Fold each of these.
Amino acid sequence: MPASTLYEVARHAGVSLATASRVLNGSNRRPGGAISERVRASADELGYIANAQAQGLAKKNSGILGLILHDVSDPYFSMIARGVQESVQDHQKVVLLASTGRGLEAERHAIATFAARRADAIVIAGSRTDNDAASAENSLILAELRRYKANGGQVAVIGHPVVGSHPDDGFHSVPVPNRELSSRLAADLAAAGHRRFLVLAGPEGLVTSDDRLAGFQEGLRHAGLDPADVHRTGFNRDGGYGAAVELGARVAAMERPEQRTRQGGGPAVCVFAVNDVMAIGAIAGFREVGLRIPEDIAVAGFDDIETLRDFTPALTTVQLPLADLGRAAVARVLGGETPAEPAGIEGTVILRRSTELP
Amino acid sequence: MPASTLYEVARHAGVSLATASRVLNGSNRRPGGAISERVRASADELGYIANAQAQGLAKKNSGILGLILHDVSDPYFSMIARGVQESVQDHQKVVLLASTGRGLEAERHAIATFAARRADAIVIAGSRTDNDAASAENSLILAELRRYKANGGQVAVIGHPVVGSHPDDGFHSVPVPNRELSSRLAADLAAAGHRRFLVLAGPEGLVTSDDRLAGFQEGLRHAGLDPADVHRTGFNRDGGYGAAVELGARVAAMERPEQRTRQGGGPAVCVFAVNDVMAIGAIAGFREVGLRIPEDIAVAGFDDIETLRDFTPALTTVQLPLADLGRAAVARVLGGETPAEPAGIEGTVILRRSTELP
DNA sequence: GAAACGCGGGAAAGCGCATTCCAACCTTGC
DNA sequence: GCAAGGTTGGAATGCGCTTTCCCGCGTTTC
């Protein structure tokens, strides 16, 4: 029992294909009431379901939005995915998902796949990588994106723009103020009394990580403090864990500068892990080597992942409206209610127990 | 600059449409070497990208797998999504995502949408709801699924089968041994010395929750213990939190049965929250009212969510190979390397600090 | 009352591709 | 050397739908 076609519905209702099409699938010409009734009844009776592929071929749009993520199971991305998904649903479209596992070639491939499916728009989330090793692949990605755009597709990137892209390319972007927020985090931490810092950053060239690092240092400088030490590691939980185990003892042994003047304890060092899962890993690692948070060492993260809100000690972090990021990206490419927020997305520094001083 | 078509490539290479089609998009007839070369070169030069919609229309499959989830941002589902995504990628297909937010009508709509796109297969994850209120919508879902299947689609359900479905329907399923594992958890907890239990369950009719509850009681019975008290609440973090705040004081005041015989403390009650996020919420709630875990009250969860592995105290839970669940579902519907695992999926009870007795 | 007009419905031309026939060609085998 | 069988490339058809164009009809206008 193959699905019934529009043609069958038309015949069953005693009208032409054109008429059936007009009444069932939106057209600017609405056939007369009686006929519409009849067609709709026939469609119902036959259990007609329009073939979206054929429609897509005939009209020139597919109703598909392609979403490219590094990893759906990462809470950062899954939250963005949720925002995208919701918005897209409002637009009566559907989302096609691709996970790249941070691979640039996989990303290029995903773009090509979406292009092949004639996706109306593509939203890319996830940090760009910008270093020599990646430059060849970055330009392939750029080329693919340009071709896609030239064929009428819309592109939005969440976070840093595509490496090498030019404003004229017309790629939309939803900037994430990583730099500013990290700077503010540094300022707040300094204001709270922290003096020495260590940043657990991702690999060099990972733009999000680099931005957060740079912003943090900037904030420190504004506060009149020395720049933080930097330790590069994996941009994930294990990176944070490994670094903590490796550095734990050394870091804890550092002398707290004002220990002489101000009585008493508190951690000598405040560690800023450039994202929450790294921070969680780091905390686990520090504990592994016998350090207490925040008594022996303070830890701050970035993202404010929902699942981690009940973590103990409560994690100091920067809240990012992840779902909104996704929604904003969709608004950029599919139009609709784009509020006055093209200016950007807000975030908030949240100081919690993990960086508390006695 | 519209995308170039196969026809243009063929003309550019001086061959027929048929030949070009045969060399570029897999066919069982491979044209001769020289010609293939030429066609491929032309395609390259013109930047040809096959139109998947047209291909889908001509062949009768779309290369699309539809994935239906309750909520992408829920770590349970996002992990399944990851498994599905990976497998699907291996099959050179693409995944279409739908989130229902636990709405049955949304689920039906998602199925219809996927059917319209002529998805090759549909994978449904997420607990079924089985109660009177849902029965009308459940049968609509069932009807939609049957129609989809009748048109040649494959269906796989992770967890409990579709409510009302009959084995003859031929829907694949990836059973999750919720009952057995909960039973085992109860047994292990009993063996560890716990005697009184409280289950924080989801709303009645939510099959996953009901199964875990029933299994737990069963395990308790086998261990010769009294059945646990049951408190129904939301199947999410806030449900756990609310219940904990509400019940905290009362629960903590309960007398530990063998307190007379065996010296000393330990929690009087062990709380089993039917999923990890509820457990986390419960822990936060209990703390809110001044209770310590596990000294004053023990808490266990279910799922072993990855992000929660570094939680303190480490959460006793049941590990479920979520990504494998997704992979298995894809294997069922798309074939391929289906190991000898159609028998089912394994899980493991993991006793951690959150239920430790002194 | 005739001409101009608007409107509702239908015929038909694609959209970009896979695939079934066909015809021409090239191998074989005896 | 010739027929039978196997290849190979091409013409044509159709997948299910949208949309343009056209035609016939009932209205309006002077």
Note: The first helix of chain B runs from residue 6 to 13.
Amino acid sequence: MYTIGQAAQKVGFSIGAIRFYERKGLLEPAARSEQNNRLYTDSEINWLVFIKCLRETGMSVEDIKQFANMVMAGTATLPERIKIIQDQKQKLLDDIEEKKSQLVHLERKLQRYYNGENY
Amino acid sequence: MYTIGQAAQKVGFSIGAIRFYERKGLLEPAARSEQNNRLYTDSEINWLVFIKCLRETGMSVEDIKQFANMVMAGTATLPERIKIIQDQKQKLLDDIEEKKSQLVHLERKLQRYYNGENY
DNA sequence: GGTTGACCTACACTAAGTGTAGCATAGTAA
DNA sequence: TTACTATGCTACACTTAGTGTAGGTCAACC
């Protein structure tokens, strides 16, 4: 069993973020020690890692919550979940293209500066 | 002279965003018509376009404000401004790399789903 | 005279947390 | 024993970059 601090360290979330996810319903309310401190099992650590993975791809907390519900609902929701991941992948690809075009804008700005333009 | 609605249309900001930028000090308070409506000159439209350009690269409103102050301070601040744009460029490059690695994570997730894993 | 449409201000709300205040508890050091 | 430090708890305020809403003004059209 891990304290919230240990869990945070292991997973790479802040303590506050973990409490926030619990409040938002992404996590079942954690078991508590006699001192009322949250305790996390290995399986709950895995859930957190899983949340971290989804979160890092830019999926919103609300969407992760939906996704978590689907996972709990069992394999029947698998096709739906695959679709969500595919959509998320497309969103990432779009983001990358957008950022690349913004890079071009900045390059142009720099060129204008180098050419003596002054704003 | 343009109304705020026309300005918003021309630049591609929402009306609310323009008022927000004024409140934040990115824009000088706009001139007003007899009816107290904001009026924008072509030069102010150009400022807005300029803000839009910086904003799209992911620069924060606060940083754009600093940048705007430097522009107003004149050519002496040019080297500093070039540095800011270069840093912003690097941030974009880093963002792109991060997103690419997140793509790999999603790919792996999908592969695991295709291989019959169920969460 | 009534009703759009565009504008105004001020305030509330959003996401995804972070930061702070005020408290309890446990372990360690003098 | 007392003091200090670390870690945890709750609850609330704050952040960013706006968006949305309520309530009001004004000119133009039918």
Note: Residues 78-114 of chain B form the longest helix (37 residues).
